[in-house]
Amino acid sequence: MPTFSIAVLPGDGIGADVTAEAVRVLNAVQPKLKDVSFSLTEYPCGAGEFLRGGDPLPAATMDACRKADAILLGAMGLPDVRWPDGREMAPQLDLREVMELYAGVRPIRLYHPAHSPLKNGGGIDLVIYRENTEGLFYSRKNPRQAGAAEVLDQLRVSRRGSERLFRAAFRHAERRRGLVTLIDKANVLPSMAYFREIFDEIAAEFPHVKAEYCYVDACALYLVQRPQRFDVLVTENMFGDILSDLAAGIVGGMGMAPSGDIGDRNAVFQPSHGSAPDIAGKGIANPLATILSLAMMIEWLPSEETKRGAKMINQAVERCCEDPSRATPDLGGKWTTAQIGEWVAANL
Length: 348
Ligand code: ATP
Known about the structure:
Number of helices: 11
CATH superfamily of the largest domain: Isopropylmalate Dehydrogenase
Number of strands: 10
Strand order of the largest sheet: 2-1-3-10-9-4-5-8-6-7
CATH architecture of the largest domain: 3-Layer(aba) Sandwich
Bound molecules: adenosine-5'-triphosphate
CATH topology of the largest domain: Isopropylmalate Dehydrogenase
CATH class of the largest domain: Alpha Beta
Number of domains: 2
Structural class: alpha/beta
Distance between the termini: 22 Å
Largest sheet: 10 strands, mixed
Order of helices and strands: EHEHHEHEEHEHEHEHEEHHH
Low-confidence stretches: none
């Protein structure tokens, strides 16, 4: 009987609250699967861990993540806990870079029309592929000279980094509606013109998938005006960071936006949101993004049974959202984090 080892990194703020509900759902789904089990181990990580032990991503946690079959993460970072140069602790970014989790996969789906602030939100179902290891975030650890009158950040686009991202996006589109939209700024930045050239080369490997381009500014407009036109969007790291929050906004906010950071060997699954200190400890965080990330995780594992489990979780979330009053306050409901987790676990 295969046992999948899962490293669980609850992290900071609401990370612990939402991870607990995903673990509850995983424990409920496990007995329904034939010949599959999960072995869960929690590891310390995050700004809180920095305050306790001096390192936001201890070597033992990093090592366990490399060895695990998959990683389930809550949220990392606290606004008041920063490096001396002013940057927040972001061990989730270190994990992406160190383990080369190049594809930031962010499904955006509207589960109930009442969740969307748009008049015509019905039928939103798209996936953003965010490049996760370079782009404008490539400069994030550049040293800053004290007193300097200017600071330069570089945007890195490499052939290797782009090819693997584009192939993953096209493969995903093959399993969906067969459209990939490259989001770039090729009319202004040379790095983006290069990004587009590589996109064209990879698009030629997938002649049955339609490929198109959209400038990032126009994409922001279309995501609000007619998001239904998109299927798979693929983009640079920083553009993906911004657009995935915008896209989450049209389907109910960060509590409805799951994600997977996927490489060739390892993968981290986590809600797209941060540690949300404004609602931490109140028991009102929406756990659905994390529960949907859990479904992505077990779908990614190499087992037909876990794929069946993922379907069960996704369908339970769909049923949960059929009644819009069965929701946490971010969606206008009165339910607590735990009540939503319990409902999903009981209705698999
Ligand atoms: P980061 O930069 O680390 O991604 P952020 O600055 O984008 O974090 P978040 O922590 O994602 O901030 O929170 C943004 C807003 O969304 C906050 O007002 C927060 O309350 C809300 N929010 C985030 N996650 C949830 C959730 N699971 N349930 C309800 N509200 C949430």
